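Hi R.,

As promised, here are both runs. First protein below:
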Amino acid sequence: MRSQRAYRVRMRSCVALSLLAILCAPAVLAQSNVSVELDEVTDNRMSEGMLSGGCELRVKLKGSGVDKAAAARIVVKDAHDDLGNALFEEPMSNDFSPRDNNNGMLQFSVKQPARAASSVRIKGTVELFAPARDPNAMIKVDKALAKLDAPFSSKALKAAKVDLTPLSAGGYKTLMKSRKLTDNDIDAIRAEGKKHGAPEKEVEAMIGFAKAMDGMDADAPDGAVILSGKKADFDRIYRVEILGADGKPVDVGSRSTSTRGDDSIMTLQPNAAPPANAALQFLVLTDKARLSFPFELTVKLP
């Protein structure tokens, strides 16, 4: 293992970067001088088999009205160190993060810079999600759990190109059986290991881990709301809320989404079993509800 060095640098004097809105926004979000402030950098340059370090950044959005957005994310479109090494292979889209998480901080990462590099330059966009800008971004499905193992019949969801199915415990178990690890999946793991130059021993360990994970989650968690669909359908959704009898979102202790190939499963585990007549509210990432701001960032490495 090559020696590892990790740096955490607190940027007391934040670097403000001008951003130009490329989508029209209402008065509450219309900004000509929204900025990103670099808060912290972690430069971790190491290498061991298939494991490698990276450069992690934490940033904060600034600008009047930004706090009116429900969520935000960073999309990296280009990243190079000052020696010309590319630090990503294709545009990387992080998940949207609620604006009230981590004091509004956003985190993202790029590949590890060369050991001799002294800085990294990143280009990308900041995307904001403001559902208040588009009435079609919030879709309520009444009595959503009344008919399980059949796709939602909501016209609004269909118009948003979202086709999902709520699952019963039996439907979930059947689906999980169909997602068992195949020989093709194992071949793909081996190919990925070979691509990264991993020793055969490490590849076999990864396959063993995948097989062990394959036997987990065969049964649906008690009281969970489980939705199945294509990955593309879930990519159009920011969040799903379970509404209680009072019409307000219930507390959800955990949320997870697992994907295999083109298929995904979303599991919502509320702190209390939802009522039989519970409604679901879908926050959909419509074009009108999203704003995009380009940015460039040069980060000096310690």
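And here is the second one, sequence first, then its structure tokens:
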Amino acid sequence: MNTHTHGHGAGSRQAGVSPIAERAILSRITWRLLPLLFVCYIVAYIDRINVGFAKLQLQQVLGVDPAVFGGVYGLGAGLFFIGYFIFEVPSNLILHRVGARLWIARIMVLWGLISMGMMFVKSTTAFYCMRFSLGAAEAGFFPGVILYLTYWFPARNRARTVALFAAAGVIAGMVGSPISGVVLGLNGIAGLAGWQWLFLVEGIPAVLVGVIVLLYLPKGPRQARWLSAAESQWIESRLAEEAALSDQHRCHRLADAFTSGRLWLLCLLYFLLNVGGYGYEMWLPSIVKELSGTSDAVVGLLNAIPYFAAAIAMLVVGRYSDRTGHRRWPVALGAMASAVGFALSGWLHNPYLAMVALILAFVGLKSTLGPFWALGTAFLSGTAAAGGIALINSVGNLGGFVGPYLVGLIKDHTGSNMAALMMLGGALLAMGLLAMTIPEASPEAAKPK
């Protein structure tokens, strides 16, 4: 493979790397890194949202009045994101310093142990404390991986790469939903309730995968034994060239990132996305059960359908965004499609049509993730990237607290799903309108192949 380089400021074509060789290197990186990171995120996501299935049995365990359980559950589900918010930026700055291999392994082992510990919850106070602790333990995982991918992939390849990684979240819903429904059915075996089996069985993989990360994940291109010295040098020179081309548009220092108007706008967009996304996911099993009136196992299978559709949409939109260089419009249009889906699902009385509308809502909001993070990483580098990506994710994930909590309160007060779904749709509509005000990345960074 012709991968020798000439000089320092040369671009990829001048560096002697043909387009075919370039695609081969990036493809090898994708296949070496993404499967492990994909599995990590599936495990993380199942541990994050399995409380939505445990909810079906937790009311009796916690001894809470059914009339107020929506608020109690919504607060407990949301406290995860408060812990996540507090520890997110420090966690990502440490990852940038010590390396992804060590820090992601630490995150996974700790959250796996805490997730298993959820099986001992017997009171609302313990429920609140454990959800907060789980968020604190997982803080830094998602933005850490997004940061890690910027060490390997040029900006113009990032929407598809991030979509591939983030698709693990929707695959987790697709795989985890039926598994969670089945595990709940282990109720009474070995003296454990179904919800206890749920937390135990779904916490163990995090610890095991954390050990694999420690043994396998390279810190960066230079540490990858499966790349030649010339190939790793090409990656680093390609990223350095890209940074130099868009240098005047980029933030390098932490203070620059935290005072950037664009960064705070991205924080607001991600907040609104997560109000809709987690409001949806934490309550979907309950809403599906109400619509279908079926068993927990069937609810698990029905719950998987929106995740399957969203995974396909994410990859298609991510590929389109990289090919055209468009970031802003896929984000705006996806959010608006989601708003329409939420509005229709609250308005329609036919349960089958309402379910189709719920699928549209989820497909729309999840399809924005690849282009959104390509926008977010295009103007950040170095310490600013570590802190800025974490800030977007941490502020944005406060929406994961607000969404489920508001859905619970609205359902308690109105006794129906309609007002809650309209609120979630309003958040996505606002996101879509705001997304249209974001400047696109510099043409050099976003230029399609």
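A quick note on the second one: The chain has one domain: 19-441. Let me know what you think.

Best,
J.
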